[in-house]
Write a structure and sequence with these properties.
globular; five-stranded mixed β-sheet; alpha+beta; five-stranded antiparallel β-sheet; about 280 residues; about 20% strand
Length: about 280
Amino acid sequence: MSFFYQNRSERLRLYTSVNNTFSSHLHRQVEMILVLEGGLLVAGSHGRSFLTPGQGILIFPNRLHSLYTDPHQGSRILLCIFEPDFCPQYQNYFLNYLPAEGSFDLGLLSRHSQTASASLLSLTDGYDRQEPVPPYLCNLAQGYLTLLLAELFTSPSAPIRLQETKNGTNPELEQRVLLYLDGHFTEELSLEILAREFGVSRFHLSRLFSEKFQTTFPRYVNSRRLEYARKRLTESKDSVTNIALDAGFGSSRSFFREFREAFHTTPSAYRRQHTKQAPRP
């Protein structure tokens, strides 16, 4: 499986999306998804959840997840992606806990939470999704999210049960490691190199990947390289060998092996299947 780190800069992204399918990724923000129409499969570190209209899910920071819409069924969803401190009362929850089950049913929540979710949806009509959320609407969204999170986390019948992480968390280190790898994945990398760069032990970093990111260091780096190579295959005419070396693979053989395992086809076949043909005159 291929996945990648998504480096977002906005404190809040709020928009509706139709027929969303998105490959495995992780980011430092919290992501809340509400299904409005159709159905959506959300898979990742939390397991697999198939959501239908009126259902939602909270994905905590730096947790692998992917979205899939069956093209025959379709989907329309509300996406709310925000920094862990956007609702400061709940920052500690996002940084030091993980949900045993992140999905919830709006129909089982109070009318206050249902009104809050409907109000979040109404805010998406106030601006173009390609533009930043206006400050006034950010303030409203913060209030609606705070109300909704209060019931999801702290009410007597809270649907999201939280478990404290075993060894706490260091979000600053996590972010620095992910940003470093995002800028250096094509170079020679090892846990030893990373340990020297950040002044922590190799064991600490290995545990960070296994417990927090739910993967291993080699798998994460290879996946980032594969995502880069996959994009180059469809957007350039460079040779497969050059792409493999530019992506950081030591040889074409290792690249072919990893690519076939991730995408179940060869790089050349993938290029033929996914390269957009120029329209005929």
